[in-house]
Specification:
The complex is a heterodimer of chains A (553) and B (246). By secondary structure, chain A is an alpha+beta fold. Among the domains of chain A are: 70 residues; 235 residues, Cupredoxins -  blue copper proteins (Immunoglobulin-like), CATH 2.60.40. Helix content of chain A is 21%, strand content 23%. In chain A, the strands form 6 sheets. In chain A, strands 13, 14, 15, 17, 19, 20, 21 and 23 form an 8-stranded mixed β-sheet that branches. In chain B, 28% of the residues lie in helices and 25% in strands. Chains A and B meet through α3, β5 and α7 of A and α1 of B.
Chain lengths: 553, 246
């Protein structure tokens, strides 16, 4: 009798278990005839919306003369501070105090003296650079400090060289945002061929760094017999300074970068363009082009052949590397995580920057703004880890120099994709003549790295180093491209780059291409499953109790 | 001094509006002083209570006495009386820029509530300020990116201060502390195993001594009850309602 009952129970429990498995509700289920409704992201989330153009300094856009320095117009949304430019041209020692006060430059950031060759411009140049951490961590709470957004809501840890500054490193007292001079990329530095240039690295950072003058004519040792090549074994430690000396004999587009733990420090952003301009009479150069981009006070040589000049600095970031400085505060931990735990051979590039910004922020300060029939000089430097293939829509440009060496006119190549290996530089002549070869006419022509990853931000399009070659008539009064309102509404949004919004989540096709919603749980199934499971547990308990009672008897 | 005069004259001549902003500022190639105050009394002070001379060194080498830092001042805390006049000698021992900023001061004497000394490199500056009478702790730091974060942080207390600021080297805990691996050795592992075994033995101990534990428990209960009853009879003459004292 007991045996029979036991067998019956076993059969009952096992069949109930099979039933439970069969009717178990799943995390994902197949839809019925009607799949779930489309859901619409709350695009009215004001905290995530970013104004396309903050328009903080419209008065900086116009052409102007400051301290007798002529500064060309810059119609872009975020033009460079013209007082920075005037000071970069004349030096902190020659500019008026009123002008210097409109900048964040230290009084000894750039001294220009002694016209050695008597041609009307200073020839002894003292440049002082500091090392600045952007989007760094803090022990004082769960936030980042000296922030610099490369795209809406994207704040990777970065290191940059910056002209020696003074006063607050933050924008204001109630802000954690870095002041506008402290930004990516490291500034473009321009000096004249034959100038006696002293570049002092004042290491304000908590790790050792150097400056290596890549491609720039420099002796191996300084006049004092000290290191002049910026190699790892002559690192400048925190709180220390070191002066590198050059008198470059050759003009061209070169680089400077840190050569300590080079792979990591380079990728953190310690690399910039160093341009040696030909020696010309009365040639006052814009020593710093902060944030790269348009050169608003070009050299005499450039002005003779071109109507405009731009510096294009391509850079990439591995988010894992960038996060190291945000996660730990102890310099020992940062050093360990960066140099030993992090493995560059297993790294990725997640963010792609042009002049410190990823699309859509490239539209604020990294556009090329042209009129018809212009000759535009572009200095393109690839400071990424990987090669780039720069493509300008609607145009074919001509290579005039490679790695700072002029190409003879006869062998200059005109093409529409420029492959540039890491650390290489290409000087381009962009002609906006509507002849079907050099230009297909006015437009808002995109230009970007044609490598698949280059136009993405952590894999999401549109992003990366995408920017626009814009014809002036197609820009609004704030320097933003016209006819892009719908796109702007979508992408000037932190949620978009946090991947929380559907790519086609708005407009006519939103119901068909927006985000599919969730299935309603099948409640009859949920209840049935719950009952079955409960019954099994109850039966098992019963068995245990019965067994115990039998034992006692 | 020439440069200083130049600054002031230029500010006055060409930028009357900004001269207001930079009214309390002196700058030359060595560095700058903002909002120094030699003589203006805070409104809550009748007179200067004491003259305090403080020398503050800033530099990388002062971080050697701490772990996990890179920059520091030579001292992390100063105490002064209400309405004290502090004469600061700020010395930069490094070849780079450092600042000494004091925050939270009254805005009518110190624009933006800030007293600010900055040295472009090795050297020293002198400036004074007069503290209000309020019992308060003021933040003293270098605002260069990552200098405060890496240790250049201190506090100035007036009348004992109104608390401590976080993450001051050697003094206070950070809000967001770093994590480190724990040094697990054979000793700590054996302590762990021993404790675990001891834990296993606890139920057996209880079962074996159940009667004694029960006795002990009832005794304790009785003791507590009798104490309570004694108190109750002392405090009130009301009859004991729950009868537990009978």
């Amino acid at each position: 009798m007991i045996l029979k009952r036991t067998i019956l129970l076993i059969i009952l429990i096992s069949s109930l278990t099979s039933l439970a498995v069969f009717i178990a509700p799943r995390l994902q289920e197949q839809a019925n005839i009607t799949p779930p409704q489309t859901v619409y992201a709350d695009s009215k989330d004001n905290n995530s919306i970013v104004i396309p153009c903050p328009n903080e300094h419209p008065e900086w856009r116009v052409a102007q003369v400051i301290d007798s320095v002529t500064i060309e117009a810059a119609p872009a949304c975020e033009p460079d501070n013209p007082y920075d430019i005037a000071t970069s041209v004349k030096g902190t020692n020659n500019v008026s105090m009123a002008t210097l006060m409109q900048t964040n430059l230290a009084q000894d950031a750039l001294t220009m003296t002694d016209d050695l060759d008597h041609d009307g411009d200073p020839d002894v140049i003292h440049i002082k650079l500091e090392v600045i951490e952007l989007n760094g961590g803090t022990p004082d709470g769960n936030f980042l400090i000296n922030t610099f957004d490369i795209a809406p809501g994207i704040q990777p840890g970065l290191w940059v060289y910056a002209p020696k500054s003074r006063g607050m490193a933050l924008k204001n007292f109630n802000s954690v945002v870095a002041n506008p001079m402290l930004r990516a990329p490291s500034p473009v530095i321009r000096v004249e061929q034959g100038d006696k240039v002293y570049i002092t690295l004042e290491n304000t950072h908590y790790l050792p760094h150097t400056i290596h003058l890549h491609g720039v004519d420099h002796p191996w040792l300084t006049s004092k017999g000290e290191d002049n090549d910026g190699m790892e074994e002559h690192a400048v430690f925190p709180g220390k300074s070191h002066t590198y000396e050059i008198k470059p004999r050759h003009a061209g587009t070169m680089l400077y970068h840190c050569h300590v733990q080079t792979a990591q420090h380079f990728m953190m952003g310690l690399a910039g363009m160093f341009i040696v301009e030909e020696n010309q009479p009365n040639n006052w150069l814009q020593t710093f082009n902060i944030g790269a981009g348009q050169v608003r006070h070009p050299s005499s040589t450039v002005k003779n052949s071109y109507s405009q000049e731009y510096d294009l600095h391509y850079q990439s970031v591995d988010k894992k590397l960038a996060k190291i400085i945000q996660d730990a505060n102890d310099p020992r931990l940062v050093a360990e995580h960066m140099s030993r735990d992090y493995n560059m051979t297993e790294s990725f590039e997640n963010y792609f920057l042009l002049n410190g910004h990823s699309f859509p922020y490239t539209l604020r300060d990294a556009m090329i703004i042209a009129s018809d029939n212009e000759d535009i000089k572009l200095h393109v430097a690839n400071l990424q880890r990987s090669a780039v293939a720069i493509h300008i829509h609607g145009h074919k440009a001509t290579i005039t120099a490679l790695d700072g060496v002029d190409q003879p006119t006869a062998i200059q190549i005109t093409r529409d994709v420029f492959d540039i290996a890491p650390a290489q530089r290409t000087d381009l002549h962009l002609l906006t003549k509507n002849d079907g070869l050099h230009s297909y006419g006015p437009g808002l022509w995109m230009f970007h790295d044609h490598t698949a990853t280059g136009t993405t931000t952590d894999g999401l399009e549109p992003g990366g180093n995408m920017a626009i070659l814009a014809y002036k008539q197609l820009l609004d009064e704030q320097g933003m491209p016209k006819m892009h309102d719908e796109l702007f509404d979508q992408i000037f949004n932190k949620n978009y780059y946090a991947k929380k919004m559907a790519i086609w989540g708005e407009g006519t096709f939103a119901p068909l291409l927006g985000d599919a919603g969730l299935l309603t749980p099948n409640y009859s199934r949920v209840i049935l499953f719950g009952l079955t499971i409960g019954l099994i547990i109850g039966l098992l308990l019963l068995v245990v109790l019965a067994y115990k009672r039998n034992q006692k008897q | 001094m020439k440069a200083l005069l130049l600054v002031l004259s230029l500010l006055g001549a060409s930028h009357p509006a900004s001269a207001m902003n930079h009214g309390g500022m002196m700058m030359d190639e060595k560095g700058m002083i903002m909002n120094a105050n030699n003589d203006k009394l805070p409104s809550d002070c009748q007179k200067i209570s004491e003259n305090v001379d403080i020398t503050i060194h800033a530099g990388q080498k002062h971080a050697f006495k701490f772990t996990g830092k890179m920059f520091a001042f030579d001292n992390q805390e100063w105490n002064v009386k209400p309405c004290a006049k502090i004469n600061i000698t700020f010395i930069n021992d490094d070849q780079i820029r450092h600042q000494l900023m004091i925050h939270g001061l009254p805005g009518y004497l110190y624009p933006e509530g800030m007293f600010h000394l900055e040295l472009n490199g090795e050297g020293q500056l002198q400036a004074s300020l007069i503290m209000p009478s309020q019992k308060k702790t003021y933040l003293v730091h270098c605002e260069l990116p990552q200098h405060m974060e890496k240790g250049m942080k201190a506090q100035l207390k007036v009348d004992g201060g109104d608390g401590d600021l976080p993450s001051i080297p050697g003094l206070t805990k950070p809000i967001k502390a770093d994590t480190y691996y724990v040094n697990w050795t054979q000793l700590s592992l054996s302590v762990l195993v021993f404790s675990a075994l001891l834990g296993c033995a606890i139920p057996f101990f209880i079962i074996l001594n159940s009667t004694r534990i029960k006795d002990f428990y009832t005794q304790m209960l009785n003791k507590i009850n009798s104490k309570k009853c004694a108190e109750k009879t002392k405090v009130s003459t009301l009859p004991d309602q729950d009868n537990s004292c009978k």
